[in-house]
Known about the structure:
Layout: H1 2-16, H2 19-31, H3 35-49, H4 55-60, H5 68-90, H6 92-108, H7 112-128, H8 132-145, H9 153-197
Helix pairs in contact: 1-5, 2-5, 3-5, 6-7, 6-8, 7-8, 8-9
Amino acid sequence: MRKRKSQEYLYEFIRLMTRDEKRYFTQTLKEVNGRKNNLRLRLFDLINNNLIESNEEIDSKITFAKNKSKLKHHLYNQLLEIISNYSLEKTLYSKLRIQLNKIDLLYSRGMHRATLKLVNATIKQAESIEANKILMELFEYRIRLLQYQNSKPEDSYDLSKKAREALQKVIEEFEIFKLLTDTFVTKRVLGEKKNEKI
């Protein structure tokens, strides 16, 4: 059943892809050699070059695969995986998450000056988009790094204050999210009760 659904979604997904996403996908697939990837790339090109045709017409042109449904299923899953990675690379929030991983790596290896440099640069980026959850983690690293610097007591106080402010904003964001979900649930329940009366 899942395979059948992924086959149905495959054509729709390719139709909705941007030119940049298609380029990224084909380049990624070309970099990974192998017969299976060559078949998937061939199927992708066939679908992409015949998007104005119906799904049935495109299906009739797939003559190079023994098991069309299996090939389409695997292509769909690979598209989701690769385009998800592409989306992650494109968004600043995701880049900040990647930066946090690098910071953690540097810090765990005792490279404190390199960690501090990356933390400071990442804080500026996180502040520019108000990524408060990430800011909390970054300030935590900055506070940990104070012991390896000739810092003044007021530095510690300032950082602690900024970390608390970020935490407060995260709590406020969570409260707003709770209100939105509660409102949605309430509207849904009221709508269902109204329908029951009718």
